[in-house]
User: Fold this.
Amino acid sequence: MESIADNPSVETAEDLPSVEERRALIERVAASEQFSRSARLRNFLLYVGRQSLKEGCPEIHEQEIGARVFGRPDSYDRTSDNIVRVNATELRKRIESYFATAGVQEPLIFEIPRGAYKPVFHRRAPAPSHHAVLAAETAASDVSPAPVSQAAVPAHTRPHLHFLWPSVSLLLAISCALLLVQNHAMRTSLYPWRNQPAVAKFWTGFLGSGRDTEIVLPDDAASVIEDVTNRPILLVDYLSRNFIRQIQSSNMSDDRKADLYEVFNHNLVTFGAVRATQMVLAQIPANSPRYLTYSRNFAADEIKRNNVILIGGQKSVPWDYLFGDQVNFIMDYDYAHRITIVRNRNPKPGEQAIYPVNFSSGNLIGYATISYLPNPNRTARVIILGGSDSDATAAAAAFLTSEDQMERLQNTFHTKNFPYFEALIKTSRVGGTFFNPELIAYRTYP
Assistant:
């Protein structure tokens, strides 16, 4: 039997990649250019990658991926629906492309073997050293050029080294400046709340459970479909895709049905939601695991074990319905009058029961809700950012990342640490930009 000593490519226990090495590599590949335009394949990779990191993880099965990544029912028929196998083929191509291009210097690589879905990691075979290449070239050459001594070179052709020192000094100065910039960027990514005590208090509290953080982008295709059909998409119908079957069996024209089906086949995210996501991501240190996923690809079990940030109201993020019984301020839609409203389920003196979105002299008055709650198991935390439109959602994210706003909120609560809470914010917009956020109502919970 061949021993490790006989075969240096066999990894010893010390050579096996750690969980953190594998996690970091999966995140780098998922964030690469190869996956920048395919949220579905990125979520596919992140799901099988995360599952493979679990201790004692068995093989990952096609049925499981179809349900968790592609939103199929748990018992869907794989013989008639090959969505996992089709996407797995493309996934393998993009992984290979990454390691052949941007990741060509990665010392650790992985692949997803055909016929399986669990990533397999191994060290990249080292490239031949420079000295080995030179030795091989020398051995292959029949004639070696005679060495040329320094004395054989005329003195007037020798380089004047004293002319090189200014250039070397300039290069050293530029390198030092670049290192300072990189060091500042690294410190900012690791300590995003420097000189922001109120913001730091909130976000360290949110991340304090030590869980991974899932940031769920809105499914604005679902919101468009609700606008056209003038009926809500409940979470149970969203997960089972039953609302699509309801559309197909309705009395709509065939053209309208085809249009809606085409809309749903696109991953639509508004610019305001992207801005909100950028602001939220900036508050999570680089060494804290965080993942982006699309609402329709989000898995229900993630909300039971991880910190979750839901970006958008329940029209575009039906997952918000899970917390309908816990929240007081609900970002809702009045289908009879076709306007966005905020419902105040238990108004206090001076508060309104309904806050409608009003237009006045070209200025839009918008509302945003922030809900900071425990997850269903009370093992992690949830943030829900909802807005009367996507820009108002961005205003909610800006509120949570503003030292002035969070300091005022902390003083309003009269507590050192942030409790679980809800906040209703009124904003005004001119020229597509929200400003003057105003806290008009709030609730706190133990």
